[in-house]
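User: I'll paste a sequence; please echo it back and then give the predicted structure.

Assistant: Echoing your sequence first, then the prediction.
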Amino acid sequence: MGDFIMEGIGKISGGEFESVKIEGVGNCSNNIKAVSINIEGVFNCSGEIDTGSLYCEGVANFKANIRAKKINVEGVFNLSKFAKIEASEIICEGVIKTGGEISTDILDAEGCIEADEIVGDKIKICSHKPKHKIIYWFNHFRSKVRVIEATSIELYGVKAHTVNGKDIIIGSNCMIENIDCSGTLYIDESSSVRNITGEYTRKY
């Protein structure tokens, strides 16, 4: 396996690589398997991604599934409606937008997340105080997720239909339709929750 570096405008037909680095504008029509992928420009990919680490500081558009050990997003990360993200760890200070599912052990987001469903072990989304300037391209700062399901959940500035977990912290500026909690539950007074179910201990 060799390295692939794109510094201008070009295409990659897919394949197996040690590392892939996109610094210009790149398009890929097939699957990519690599130890590491680094996107600092604009990258459009129709194939599946299988990698150890995926770093995105630019703009990336994917039409198929992504599998990675670690994903770090400081730019804009777009997936098509039926594409899924599977990763051991996701760190997001930019934007992740997908119509599909995000499956991860750990999600630590201080940017914006839009997804149909997030499933994991430890999920933290803090999107009302964005650190990265890329967030200001968007009209709102609140993350939107239909379903969040994890052991530990901590949310700030998130709008969700259903939140299921053991230990749940609903921080400031959240709008939640339904919560099912089996451990401890905290809800900030600035947030709104319509329905709460489960055997839980409320923290104030």
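The mean pLDDT is 92. The radius of gyration is 18 Å.
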